[in-house]
Design a protein that fits this description.
429 residues; alpha+beta; Conserved hypothetical protein from pyrococcus furiosus pfu- 392566-001, domain 2; six-stranded antiparallel β-sheet; 21 strands; 31% helix
Length: 429
């Protein structure tokens, strides 16, 4: 699918385009307006097996049927066979009218009202050139194995079903543009599978589109909030397609991927707290002695205290402690080394508790959210874990500083919301 006629799309000079954010309108595949409340799904990892099965059994138009095309048909397909079945199921949904192509290349304003938060942003195509040129900046490392897996997935299914969550510095002109679009009735508004109200506006008028492109041309950088592996695999997919089609024009859909862009102030950034299953041979006393070398320790009602930088909560043997780095620890100037999750790893988890790999070690688990410290206490009191650590949320300024410096955060440093629905807008290649 070509995103837009190249003769009609405004392009910026190559040397300028390499240093500014580009947004590209696209013809989304959208659910039938009469079915829109039934089609989009939550992220797959949020479903229990029973919830997923119930949704598949009870809702024939759920996008889960695309992602699980062999539901009720015996053993689940794997690998390329499964990817091809996903692609075919999407085609079936199109033939049944569950999904319909938009009539013209469009930007979409998308608003989410969930719990006590509201989010308003723009769904658009974003350029893999911008990703490669570091206009779209990263703060997390990626695993090449997962990037290769997602790239292979894209090559066979040929679509994005969930936008990458991107953020940009608050900009009053862009906020005014969004507000002007939202002053009109939405194309659709519905209660989503996550319990939130989701509203979508289509912006197909060329004048409004050009205005938005110019506004983003003044934004030097946008940042990946959630979706580092999907972004990296999209860039690798672009590279693969360009090699296969050396005559490419640059306007093909495979040169871009789908993003949801919201201002920094609307992101909700939560911490990931840590629980470890054993003390790595330590007793309570020897663990406290080992910690005293690098930290000031005091008993404190940690869950009831304001979460502060350079302080780590620890729950051990029914007591909360507050750990503050001693002066020789608090003087780190490196952006990453000075982050609380990295201090926890380099001074406690790795040298004292023997956690070498934060991604793969089976002795450590992560909790996020406002009730996670209560859950941590319960898990440790039951004996399922030996010790837990609480952290303050990472700040957006810290994420940007790390990304701007070309560095990466420690694994599981941030849990960022909103979490987006799958199957609301589909970007086809």
């Amino acid at each position: 699918m070509i995103i837009q006629n190249p003769e009609k799309q405004k392009r910026f000079p190559p040397n300028l385009a390499d240093h500014m954010a580009q947004l590209i309108p696209f013809k989304a595949l959208l659910p039938d307006p009469d079915l829109i409340a039934n089609v989009p799904t939550r992220s797959l990892y949020t479903y229990t097996e029973d919830e997923r099965k119930e949704s598949l059994d009870m809702n024939p138009s759920s996008f889960l049927h695309v992602l699980y095309p062999d539901h009720g048909q015996g053993p689940r397909k794997k690998g390329v066979e499964r990817y091809k079945a996903i692609r075919q199921k999407l085609q079936d949904f199109k033939e049944q009218g569950i999904f319909q192509h938009d009539e013209s290349a469009t930007f979409y304003v998308y608003a989410i009202d969930l719990d006590d938060r509201s989010y308003s942003g723009i769904i658009a195509g974003v350029s893999t050139n911008d990703y490669n040129n570091d206009v779209i900046k990263k703060h997390e490392d990626t695993l090449q194995r997962r990037v290769e897996l997602f790239t292979n997935y894209l090559e066979h299914v040929q679509f994005n079903a969930e936008p990458v969550l991107l953020t940009y510095p608050d900009n009053s002109a862009i906020s005014n543009w969004i507000a002007k679009i939202k002053s009109k009735p939405p194309r659709s508004s519905f209660l989503g599978a996550d319990g939130g109200i989701h509203s979508l506006w289509a912006v197909s008028e060329s004048e409004a589109q050009e205005e938005l492109k110019v506004l983003f041309a003044s934004i030097p950088s946008i940042y990946i909030a959630d979706g580092h592996h999907r972004s990296a695999s999209s860039a690798q997919f672009t590279h693969s397609m360009r090699q296969n089609k050396p005559e490419y024009s640059g306007y093909e859909a495979f040169n871009n991927f789908m993003g949801y862009l919201i201002p920094e102030s609307e992101l909700r950034i939560s911490e990931f707290n840590r629980m470890v299953k054993d003390l790595h041979g330590h007793s309570t006393e020897t663990l406290l002695d080992a910690l005293a070398g690098d930290f000031f320790l005091e008993e404190a009602p940690y869950p009831n205290l304001p979460k502060e930088k350079k302080s780590i909560g620890m729950y051990l043997q029914g007591k909360w402690y507050l750990l503050r780095p001693k002066p020789h620890q608090a003087t780190a100037t490196d952006l990453v080394e000075s982050l609380d999750p990295q201090i926890l790893y380099t001074r406690i988890l790795e040298p004292i508790l023997g956690i070498k790999d934060l991604r793969k070690d089976q002795r450590i688990e992560y909790l996020y959210g406002k009730n996670s410290l209560i859950q941590m206490e319960e898990e440790i009191d039951r004996g399922n874990f030996a010790v837990g650590f609480g952290l303050a949320p990472i700040l957006m300024s810290e994420i940007k500083a790390v990304a701007d410096a070309g560095k990466v955060m420690p694994p599981k440093s941030t849990y960022i919301e909103p979490k987006l629905l799958s199957g609301l807008t589909i970007y086809e290649y």
